[in-house]
UniProtKB/TrEMBL annotation:
Key words, A-Z: Acyltransferase, Transferase
Species this chain originates from: Pseudofulvibacter geojedonensis
Pfam families per record: Acetyltransf_3
Enzyme class: transferase
UniProt-listed PROSITE patterns: GNAT
Domain N-acetyltransferase span(s) in chain numbering: 13-172
Name of the protein: GNAT family N-acetyltransferase
UniProt keyword annotation of Transferase present: yes
Record flagged with keyword Plastid: no
PANTHER family assigned: GNAT FAMILY, PUTATIVE (AFU_ORTHOLOGUE AFUA_3G00765)-RELATED-RELATED, N-ACETYLTRANSFERASE DOMAIN-CONTAINING PROTEIN
EC id: 2.3.-.-
Length: 174
């Protein structure tokens, strides 16, 4: 990965821009039951599919805007445990913050820790004026995390090429 893109660290985590070196991890993450239920099938069924997804869906945004999808790595053992990022998504006003973690790393505070540093980077490093998020009505854990991050529910929306009604959240600055 080119060093011109920022990485971030927290007490327990390193967040680095996702690269082709992360293909095996992305393959595993995209095929977890909660990813498939709440995010959807991204047709990443082989390492080649995962590499192609990174090349066509993740890297172009990183190169264009300087931010995108970050692989979340646990410092104590260098385990790749999840992703968190900022996405310029069609149908969403502002920049979308999103996150997903492998099941073994749920309910340990990693999602909040990584999303909070990415939220701060969005404002401080990338000068993003409007931070949004989308989630499904059934994804209560995501809703709780978004609210803990300071985002508030605004309305239900549909995004292009998706027939699932999603909840739109926005960061309301004090």
């Amino acid at each position: 990965m080119n060093n011109k893109y920022l990485s971030f660290t927290t007490e327990r985590l390193i967040l680095k821009p996702t690269s082709l070196d992360d293909a095996e991890f992305i393959l595993a993450l995209h095929n977890t039951p909660l990813w498939l239920q709440f995010i959807g099938d991204r047709k990443t069924h082989t390492i080649e599919d995962a590499k192609n997804y990174i090349k066509t869906k993740m890297l172009p945004q990183l190169h264009k805007f300087g931010y995108g999808n970050y692989t979340v790595i646990r410092k104590k053992d260098n385990a790749k445990i999840g992703t968190c990022g900022l996405f310029n998504r069609d149908g969403v006003e502002g920049i979308d913050i999103g996150f997903a973690f492998l099941p073994d790393y749920h309910n340990q505070g990693y999602a909040y820790e990584s999303a909070n540093i990415i939220k701060e980077a969005a404002i401080t490093n990338f000068n993003i004026k409007q931070l949004s998020a989308i989630t499904m009505k059934e994804n209560l854990n995501s809703q709780k995390l978004l609210e803990k991050l300071g985002l508030v529910y605004i309305k239900d929306i549909l995004i292009p090429d998706d027939n699932e009604l999603l909840m739109l959240y926005k960061l309301v600055k004090n």
